[in-house]
Amino acid sequence: MNSFDASTQVERSTDDPGVSTGSFDGSWQVGNGINGGVVLSTTARGLAAALGDDRHPDPLAITGTYLSASTAGPLTVTAEVARRGGSISSGTATLAQPDAAGALQTRAIVQGVFGDLSQLPDDSEVRRDPPQMPAPEDCLPATMAPPHITESAKYLNNLDLRFDPATVQWALGQPARRGMIQAWVRFPDGREPDPFALLFLVDCLPPVLADFGRFGWSPTLQLSAYIRARPAPGALLVRHETEHVSGGQFEEDVRIWDSEGTLVAQGRQLARTPRA
Amino acid sequence: MNSFDASTQVERSTDDPGVSTGSFDGSWQVGNGINGGVVLSTTARGLAAALGDDRHPDPLAITGTYLSASTAGPLTVTAEVARRGGSISSGTATLAQPDAAGALQTRAIVQGVFGDLSQLPDDSEVRRDPPQMPAPEDCLPATMAPPHITESAKYLNNLDLRFDPATVQWALGQPARRGMIQAWVRFPDGREPDPFALLFLVDCLPPVLADFGRFGWSPTLQLSAYIRARPAPGALLVRHETEHVSGGQFEEDVRIWDSEGTLVAQGRQLARTPRA
């Protein structure tokens, strides 16, 4: 099984339809914990399982607030249905893990709206075109990143991630200071993107502060993902941007376009800057 | 009492510290319901009351998912504390109202992170400057808006709202089609802005689709607000933008700058386009 699916899959309890269990794989580690997008996607899968709604299989808007760093190992998602509607369903879910003493620690609280992307009208009245981007073969693979990046972000090894060279000058000690990083991303085993993968991919690049020469653990306070369309097969263009770093906090805005140039996801998070 | 404060204030139950009650004033009506920013701010006040945490008085990141349209009249906020930390506290809350038959209907579910904006470092390392904007006296007051706007958005009468003339050509039947509306906003009675008012003000302008000549009720699926700084006294510059309208949905991005040019809030919502 694909490593992302293995780490985000959950099994619904036969006793309680609101409860699902799973296990994080340590290969998704970044900084002190498991990648926040993996946490979001896993919790959303638990919420989808609780909704059990074939009419509304796709996450449309999912937000998570992070309470403590997730770790490799077992997890439980406890979900509550808020509303089953005609075109959308909504609910909340909590992801928890046992700590070293066996006490359950809440990692994230999530709220989400689910619908059916294939039922949305196939219009695109207004759109921002995908950015200019060199072809994947002219981009820099994450495996060439300096060790202080790949060691603190092991999950990068789970992806075929190729950076736009113009946006990774920070890796050479010459940050461009524009607040933007973009890359082509796909799973190396050919697993094609889908809406639950997009919930992770809105958090898949290094924190955009790297473009200002600042590295280290940037804990997310809250992360929202809007899934706008089902992605076509192939590599995705993922762009992280920030325009405001102040008070020890920054917003990270993410756009993802699929191989056909369709905007398929938007993400935004409020995070703390790394401690100096 | 200021009309916004009167409609968003809540009183904490003496029996259950997680429960607060209040009442929406009908003057905050827009389309089929009460303005979504007023709902967000009211629910956040109930969550803050449940946290009861003097160390973390300010909303930092608040997200609401909307389940049904709120109406004028009594409301109950039921909140649950998720975590009380050293620098932030978090929790969830639900706002409900009795329907005509007296059954409680959930209007919105909210999750929020609270902290102390005055304790954040006073740095601003990276910032986007406020946009160019004519002086308030050279802008167009909302009271000059055509009746089909002010009748479907009564709450505009509660604000001193002055549109940048270049962004309200839609009111003259000539939409600029740039996906942007901006205005100076303040409370007409001199009530100065604060973080809870900002939770409302990220939803205070007409839906940005008006700039494409599309009017009508645009129900919000999910709305997030990040409060970045305490606003200085005076009028706020509020800008709504969209760059992607597709599949019957659009995102609305909001930035708010205070009278000193500080970015004080960011908002984003996923909403549905009005039915044709």
From TrEMBL, chains A, B:
SUPFAM superfamilies: Thioesterase/thiol ester dehydrase-isomerase. This is Acyl-CoA thioesterase. Residues 136-271 form the Acyl-CoA thioesterase-like C-terminal domain. Residues 1-27 are annotated as: Disordered. Residues 1-11 have a biased composition (Polar residues). Pfam families: 4HBT_3, 4HBT_3C. Residues 25-106 form the Acyl-CoA thioesterase-like N-terminal HotDog domain. InterPro entries: ACOT8-like_C, Acyl-CoA_hotdog, HotDog_dom_sf, Sec_Metab_Biosynth-Assoc, TesB_ACOT8-like_N.
